[in-house]
């Protein structure tokens, strides 16, 4: 559990966005989180940047989107996270995160979150061919063992155009609710 936030300061949620088609709708999660009293900053994977409207998201959050590492000596563009929601979470990022690979800023933040005790949830969005790979289930098991909670969206059929209508962005907040005590 994170330290209590000062009474006049909202808790800060990092939304980590990966490169899946549904990422274009991440504004829905930002809106829901802001309505639930979170301040929000977005961290996109380098591939994920191509799936989102950066200008619209920066206007919505009031913070720059982070994707690359800052230069040494540069100020940190975002406040520290009180919680993290990875949405959408790709096959690629889930497996690399579980393996402790930290070759994107998003993965660096995720890999450190466990040691820093930051409550973290993830909404995977992938197809059934990806989900069939044995590494994926091992990754979920490892991350669950680290306290990460996962959304319930079932993998969609490959090359079937996804299942964006079944992706429930607000589930990230539902999953976080029992993990945080400062969001209300
Ligand atoms: C149009 C398009 C849609 C994609 N949708 C998904 C998806 O739903 N889930 C997924 O895991 N990967 C998807 N991918 C593949 C990922 O973009 C790819 O694995 C990428 O390396 C993931 O990078 P990231 O995990 O760093 O964001 C998609 C790729 C493209 C081009």
UniProtKB/TrEMBL annotation:
Alphabetized GO MF terms: FMN binding; phosphopantothenoylcysteine decarboxylase activity
Please give the GO cellular component terms listed in this UniProt entry.
Answer: phosphopantothenoylcysteine decarboxylase complex
Q: Which residues form the Flavoprotein domain?
A: 14-106
GO biological-process terms attached to the record: coenzyme A biosynthetic process
Classification via InterPro entries = Flavin_trans-like, Flavoprotein
A Pfam family of the record is Flavoprotein
Tell me which positions the record assigns to the signal sequence. none
- Which Gene3D superfamilies does this UniProt record tie to the protein? Flavin prenyltransferase-like
- Recorded protein name is Flavoprotein domain-containing protein
Species source reads Streptomyces glaucescens
């Amino acid at each position: 559990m994170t330290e209590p936030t000062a009474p006049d300061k909202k808790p800060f949620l990092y939304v980590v966005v990966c490169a899946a088609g549904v990422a274009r709708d991440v504004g829905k999660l930002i809106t829901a989180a802001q309505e639930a009293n979170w301040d929000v900053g977005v961290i996109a994977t380098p591939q994920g940047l191509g799936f989102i409207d950066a200008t619209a998201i920066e206007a919505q959050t009031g913070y720059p989107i982070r994707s690359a590492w800052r230069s040494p000596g540069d100020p940190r563009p975002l406040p520290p996270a009180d919680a993290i929601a990875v949405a959408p979470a790709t096959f690629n990022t889930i497996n690399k995160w579980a393996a402790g690979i930290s070759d994107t800023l998003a993965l660096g933040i995720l890999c450190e979150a466990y040691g820093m005790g930051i409550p973290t949830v993830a909404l995977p969005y992938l197809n059934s061919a990806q989900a069939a790979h044995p590494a994926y289930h091992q990754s979920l098991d490892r991350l669950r063992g680290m306290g990460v909670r996962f959304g319930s969206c079932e993998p969609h059929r490959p090359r079937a155009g996804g299942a964006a209508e079944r992706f429930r962005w607000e589930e990230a907040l539902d999953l976080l609710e029992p993990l945080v005590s400062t969001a209300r």
